[in-house]
Design a protein that fits this description.
Blueprint: H1 12-20, H2 23-33, H3 39-46, H4 50-62, E1 66-70, E2 78-82, H5 84-87, H6 90-103
Antiparallel strand pairs: 1-2
C-alpha cells in the first residue's frame, strides 16, 4: 500500500509532515543541527542504511530543508547544510526532545543539558504563549469563525 501524500492538504501540519515527518528525516535534521555535514558522518552517527540515507537526504534537499554544497575538487565531495527553512525546525526539534525527555526518558542518562551559548543558562521549555507571554494549552485556543472553523475543533474557548 502506497503512503498517502499531503502536498495539496489544507492542513499545514499534514503538509509539514509530508516534508520532514518520518523519523529518519528528523534525525538527519537533528544531526545537521549538531554540525554533521558529510554523508559518511550521518551514516556512522545514525547507523542508517546507505539507501535510506540517500533517499532522506535527497528528499530534504528537494524540499529545501538542506542544501547540497560541493566542497571537493571537481565535485568529488559534498556536504549537506541546513537552509533557513531547515534552521526554522529548531524549536520543533527542541520541543520534541523536551516532550521525549518528559514522557519517554532514557533510563540510564539525564536529559540533554542544552544551554544558551551567550549566557550559559539552561533554555526554558518550549511553549505556546498568548500575546502577553502567558502559557497556553490546547484547551485555551480556538479557531475563529471562517473557513477553518467548519473543519477544525481545537479546544474550548478561553472564558474571562
Amino acid at each position: 500500500m502506497a503512503r498517502k501524500r499531503f502536498d495539496d492538504s489544507s492542513c499545514s501540519v499534514a503538509r509539514a509532515l509530508n516534508e520532514v515527518g518520518d523519523w529518519w528525516s528528523l534525525l538527519v535534521v537533528l544531526h545537521a543541527m549538531y554540525g554533521t555535514r558529510r554523508f559518511v558522518d550521518f551514516q556512522q552517527e545514525l547507523g542508517i542504511a546507505r539507501n535510506i540515507l540517500c533517499d532522506r537526504l535527497a528528499r530534504l534537499v528537494d524540499n529545501e530543508v538542506l542544501k547540497k554544497v560541493e566542497v571537493g575538487e571537481h565535485g568529488s565531495r559534498f556536504e549537506y547544510r541546513l537552509t533557513d527553512k531547515g534552521r526554522d525546525l529548531f524549536p520543533i526539534v527542541i520541543a520534541l526532545r523536551q516532550w521525549g525527555d518528559k514522557w519517554n526518558p532514557a533510563p540510564d542518562q539525564a536529559p540533554l543539558d542544552l544551554r544558551d551559548r551567550e549566557t550559559g543558562r539552561t533554555i526554558p521549555r518550549v511553549e505556546v504563549q498568548d500575546a502577553d507571554g502567558n502559557p497556553l494549552t490546547v484547551r485555551d485556543v480556538f479557531v475563529p469563525n471562517g473557513d477553518d472553523a467548519s473543519r477544525v475543533s481545537v479546544g474550548k474557548k478561553k472564558t474571562g
